[in-house]
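Tutorial, part two.
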Amino acid sequence: MREIIIQKNDANQRLDKFLFKYLESAPQSLIYKGIRKGRIKVNGKKSDISYKLQLDDKLQLYINDEFFETENNIGILNIKFSLDIVYEDDYILVANKPAGLLCHEDANERRHTLINYVQAYLYQKGEYHPEAEQSFAPALCHRIDRNTAGLVITAKTAEALRVINDKIKHREIDKFYLAKVRGKIAPQSGELVHYLFKDSKQNRVYAYDKPKIGTSKAVSRYKTISFDGNDTLIEVQLISGRTHQIRAQFAHIGHPLVGDGKYNSNVRYNDKTQKHQELQAYKLIFNFTTPAGELEYLKGTIIEVK
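Running the prediction step on this input gives:
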């Protein structure tokens, strides 16, 4: 039997959701059965899977020891890294991710990722203590493409993660990008509305002018900053947040991003010497319209890459 005391970062989440994270190697069916049969108790009593954990609750887990084994992540937390921090306080950190760096690991890269760098930074400065946490680790609140540069928010606490995720979901954080696209855009400013279909096998998005089965509506607003005779530098505000949204929408209207090999269908626009698309998430505005709990102080804050 193992006993767990619920800490601040574990509280206010469902019992089953907490256990999925705490017992990563255990099948979900085993966890549900343990709760149902009373092998997992809260404060000495049988509980419901949807029970919301409270600070200082005691969990008793009558589960085989093998399911408590977790991967030692300390090696990754001692990694050497380069991190461009644009903003940081006690609850969030905003980093400027370089093009070419993954936000999270994939099948080919498990070490050099933005989340590993951020967690290593917090661990090495003494703010993140993984041995003391039971279900929480600093987490990215959103992500951007590997070959897109720009601002990504990390939550340092579970409550900050909940609040930021809620604000992103309800569009209370405005995201602005700088993009260089081929050709001269006319009109110089406007709103693009398309319907995007994501082909997961090809990791590619297709844009349509009218809705089709399986598509999601995508809205972007843009304005021209400058035109150099060949390419246009624009600012884009994401109204919706779809995969490859900016890249797919501007390619669809005949103005693919400079350096974007995936969406440059026009041969004369391809430039094989360019490794990454000219796209940067450069500004965030915390435009809160509803209560933000411990992050209320961020209301009206603008974070920008200078």
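The longest helix spans residues 158-169. In part three we will examine how such features are distributed along the chain.
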